[in-house]
Amino acid sequence: MQQVLMTGAAGGIGTLLRPILPKLGVKMRLSDMADPDGGPAPDEDWAMADLTDAADVARVVEGCDAILHFGGISTENRADLIHEVNVKGTYTLYEAARKAGVRRILFASTNHVIGFHRRETLLDADSEVRPDSIYGVSKAYGEALATYYWHKFEIESLILRIGSCFPEPKDRRMMATWMSREDMLRLIETMLFAPRLGCPVVYGVSDNPECWWDNSKTAYLGWRPRDSSAQFAAKFADFEPEDPNDPAVVYQGGGFAKAGHYED
Amino acid sequence: MQQVLMTGAAGGIGTLLRPILPKLGVKMRLSDMADPDGGPAPDEDWAMADLTDAADVARVVEGCDAILHFGGISTENRADLIHEVNVKGTYTLYEAARKAGVRRILFASTNHVIGFHRRETLLDADSEVRPDSIYGVSKAYGEALATYYWHKFEIESLILRIGSCFPEPKDRRMMATWMSREDMLRLIETMLFAPRLGCPVVYGVSDNPECWWDNSKTAYLGWRPRDSSAQFAAKFADFEPEDPNDPAVVYQGGGFAKAGHYED
Amino acid sequence: MQQVLMTGAAGGIGTLLRPILPKLGVKMRLSDMADPDGGPAPDEDWAMADLTDAADVARVVEGCDAILHFGGISTENRADLIHEVNVKGTYTLYEAARKAGVRRILFASTNHVIGFHRRETLLDADSEVRPDSIYGVSKAYGEALATYYWHKFEIESLILRIGSCFPEPKDRRMMATWMSREDMLRLIETMLFAPRLGCPVVYGVSDNPECWWDNSKTAYLGWRPRDSSAQFAAKFADFEPEDPNDPAVVYQGGGFAKAGHYED
Amino acid sequence: MQQVLMTGAAGGIGTLLRPILPKLGVKMRLSDMADPDGGPAPDEDWAMADLTDAADVARVVEGCDAILHFGGISTENRADLIHEVNVKGTYTLYEAARKAGVRRILFASTNHVIGFHRRETLLDADSEVRPDSIYGVSKAYGEALATYYWHKFEIESLILRIGSCFPEPKDRRMMATWMSREDMLRLIETMLFAPRLGCPVVYGVSDNPECWWDNSKTAYLGWRPRDSSAQFAAKFADFEPEDPNDPAVVYQGGGFAKAGHYED
Amino acid sequence: MQQVLMTGAAGGIGTLLRPILPKLGVKMRLSDMADPDGGPAPDEDWAMADLTDAADVARVVEGCDAILHFGGISTENRADLIHEVNVKGTYTLYEAARKAGVRRILFASTNHVIGFHRRETLLDADSEVRPDSIYGVSKAYGEALATYYWHKFEIESLILRIGSCFPEPKDRRMMATWMSREDMLRLIETMLFAPRLGCPVVYGVSDNPECWWDNSKTAYLGWRPRDSSAQFAAKFADFEPEDPNDPAVVYQGGGFAKAGHYED
Amino acid sequence: MQQVLMTGAAGGIGTLLRPILPKLGVKMRLSDMADPDGGPAPDEDWAMADLTDAADVARVVEGCDAILHFGGISTENRADLIHEVNVKGTYTLYEAARKAGVRRILFASTNHVIGFHRRETLLDADSEVRPDSIYGVSKAYGEALATYYWHKFEIESLILRIGSCFPEPKDRRMMATWMSREDMLRLIETMLFAPRLGCPVVYGVSDNPECWWDNSKTAYLGWRPRDSSAQFAAKFADFEPEDPNDPAVVYQGGGFAKAGHYED
Questions:
Q1: CATH number at residue F156
Q2: pTM score
Q3: How many domains does chain A have?
Q4: How far apart, in whole angstroms, are the C-alpha atoms of residue E98 and residue E86?
Q5: Looking at residues E232-259, what average pLDDT do you find?
Q6: How far is CA A134 from CA A78, A115, A260, D159, in A?
Q7: Which one of A20, B44, E72, F211 has the largest count of C-beta atoms within 10 Å of its C-beta?
């Protein structure tokens, strides 16, 4: 693994990760539709690309050994936009990877692919897909696409169902779903250097006290989160008790599960 | 159930079913992008619609209690066409249904959603999605979409993973995957009139001797196939033995699993 | 098996079964709290007993090889009565059986032990108990009691979760839950004469088209229902469509699941 | 959670917990049939109540947000007493809770509900009930009752199958089943303040080296035991080897599984 | 499949099958250590071979497309003999097959590989091996060997756990374990001509009323037994009731499970 | 446990363990076919024995309470040798143990019993046997034999599927399969002194970052590995990336799975 591409590098997770990416010890190409806030850092290799433009994508994928595909729309939005970017764009990325001989991809999926499971159900890699949003449905498309490229072309993907990757939990629910950027970085490192990756589904979450997701089936990878939301417990100590029957509390998808259909 | 819409009515399955649809005893509206071969029958209610055109779809859905959604591309094809029709088109159909208050939909999915499972693996409603084609990936999108509309809006869908619905098996593999049109019709009747449908995954296959798919988890519906491919056994009695390690034999998707990426 | 006791012989199922019990070819003692409607038949051996009276029960159990325990309250009722008859009474019966050396008991349990499962969930012998009524809770007590006597004293019990044992289905739901008296009789015969009974949970239901319950784990017994509610389909052909989201339709327990707490 | 009731406060576990209950930071009402040994502490709010007396129970439940129901008979005893207290009494408590609008209950169940499983079988929340005593059967009644109130009335219960909650293990078996009072207190805190409790089955046991019970399905609660019986290993270092085929060693229920029927 | 070898052709099952083997429509070579009782039939192709003699085995395997390996010791015996014939002999057969390019083997295993499961446990292809005899252990060796040749060399084997293949059931237990020779022949036909065999475990049993073994995981083969022991029910109608706690009744292996270690 | 026999004491694991065996606090008899390299230590009790010689084995087993059976061939070899030592020899050992009244045996099995499972499949005690070598097949025989002696004669065995027990990992694969000798010793101690052992399958592996095997089903034993291969990570930091599709990487058996049939 010499050259690695990160898409969506100007997005939320990209922005969190960029300062610590050098720890990976690989050449990193960063890509997004626009420059990052504040502009690229001096030592960063930026390459603009629109995921829905096959030529753009082919250009940035060229010469890469692996891709961290964080690009795309990452919350509920208009269905036409989601189809354009998360369906067509993800397909464009995988096709470019296939043609360029890329062997490994991290596909940034989301917990909203399984957001309509109840909080009291422990999920694992084989749990039924139950998207809570059109956004979640589009990521289910991406997950299925990743398995297609694996079974047909032996392109390995880590399907990463990310919980909440922020500097710290922003609400009570994130005490269960939070993932630290350091745990994310270690997972990326694992995914890049594992002798065999295959096409596993991994839940992207730190070792928080409240646990909804069981990653034991992918223990062969050797990734174990080291951080925990427990350090932020005080922040929510005096929170107003939630209604246990509020759909945003009942379902793992939280507010996404509760919301009606997106209207612009 | 007074008024039922069938999309894709000029397609393969639509053409097979049209002569026997009157047995359902409901008012049937038939829709496709073009007139059926030979033109509509005198008593048929045809309504032209392009699935990717929201206005068209809204018009034909209007006033329907249920939809048999057989429309869309039903084999491997160019990805852009598949995205347009099977992704965008399926979304358009479900949104129209939601707005029009339709309560039940049969979503015609395919065995190519699980085509990369080995033949010796018995699948059921909870088996992992393993599409063997971009076509299969697009149907995985549709299945996920159906569950979204069920969990969020209580629109019931029968997710039907159709084997091979033809007058008779066309090759050795279809001895396992064949579904008679009469079994299909009985399943449609079941789906229309069951007290509660929910959002089950059902494999569309007759009671053939070779069985890859187990529908027992959806036995609550009360559908039991009555036909069998056994009646066609003589047709394949002198077939050339197949190579058990040919990908088209190893995988349930047959030729779809064996084929390379679609190139136009 | 020479001498068999049936409790609750004047109740609904007892009354249905009495005319065909002679087919079993055993000496049958019939017991209830009161004489049956119309009085005993000339060749019947009746013995009055109150299940909550240990002396009564000891008397009728005396000399029996097996017991068909259909006695008790068989629908929702005041909790104090249910506790008296179905909890204390069932205990009294099992203790009397233990002391008298009875080796086999049919414990008439009910589908209301699992009535809060959804209709679209296929249950089997290991499914979680989810009673829909205090009546159902009392039968969960009886089921647990039967396993206690099995594990500690090797008294074998057939735990029979009866669906709806009537001459014919009385409502739409019973198309799924109906059990013919002939299927019941064959099950009793099986239970009396099996080389080994153990302590299985069996769902008491005929081979109806709609199937919620899977008895395959107890296939070692050799009981296969031969009747089907299909013969009564015409009776419900013109039924008013049910609301699939009505709790009485959603849950297997039907009206029991929908009802509030019993108030006298 | 402002006001919490503890029943059985003068019993074994109540006595262990009372000194540390103030850490919960809630107003605690303590109840039992009689004064605690040594009398109430100055700051304790005691309320006498007989669980089988509905008026008593209604009085102490009044105004409570949650109940820790440790009351009842906690070992094998005469069946009539167990039925009176653990069956009728538990029902009385739940009915009082329903009428008073209590939303959460900890139901103190026992490992003797599953005592006839072998030691080498790892159990979890879905394991089959196999009571080893009439006491265990009565707790199976209580567990079923708790699920009834959850499914019908949305009263949340933590069904706690307690191992051995003592200051320290009293015999070799308790090295596996021991639960520290601090772990118990943390579980109570978790149960009171979780955003959503549902109706989970949790095994009440510390993080002991020998582990028979797997709580991972209820990891969503966020409770993780911190204590371990390992600290008491020296106490049993020179124990006489046990016979691995002694029923008290074979079965998880230990001496309860080995004992004959209770005779007074 | 032109040329098929049957080993053990002079044994019990071989003798039963020989008259009907011509229905298979293949050239059959029959082999055993000695001539069959009464000598070969005029049209039979007999080839003497000792399974423990590599040269013998190579000679009879030569030119075969498939092997029906019924040879070996088929009941409990001295361990040294069993090791010689069933361990060393089976290895010799598989090695000869590998070197001769044979692609398919029926390995005649036995229910005594799983004979220490209780009668009330429904087994399937994935059930734990629990041999009830050294004979059963030697067949577990053979089953493991078959999977080795499958995974390493793609030699397909049907691992057939035969119940009781006799003209008719000889005792009460065989009402559950009986397999007709016609069902056996149909299974052989299926195994020879299936497009893909793989390396499945199949229980060799007819469609008897009492069923201990579930073949649904291998339904892809298309074999469904058509006979049933029900036709012999009268034979056992007046049997002396068996003791349900007799090890020969408790365990599926019957008398094999009950017997002590073989002593010569 | 006073007197314990270790077979194979001059082999690889025996040599590693011998210096630390005194920590067990039992009288240890060491046995092998020849003297250990460098000769016995002064305080060691050595007894020569050939596992295939019943008289030899009877002599060394005499008077032992337990056996640590590490003897036998521990890598792929000529089939006739493997059958002689690992099949006949293991049988000889168990028979001697039965006759001498030995109650507990550690049977040193190997991960090569399951070597044809893919690396990305998490295995546990119930996973299907898939040997990757004749050596692995012979250990499958030994495992089946151990269960026979357990079910028929109540001789308890720990079936230990050893990963790689060396001073440190010797290649990249051993980062996942490594077991420290201290973890091995603690497991032996656990096995000798557990109140009840039964006949569990345990994977012999330290708490390494990469985990292929899940021992949670045998958590009742109380063994938890304390070492980890993580301490050796630097050793493989600059390893040449492996081909994820190399059979030696795909399969858990590593090079054993990749190798062709053993040719001498």
A1: 3.40.50.720
A2: 0.97
A3: 1
A4: 18
A5: 93
A6: 8, 11, 11, 37
A7: E72
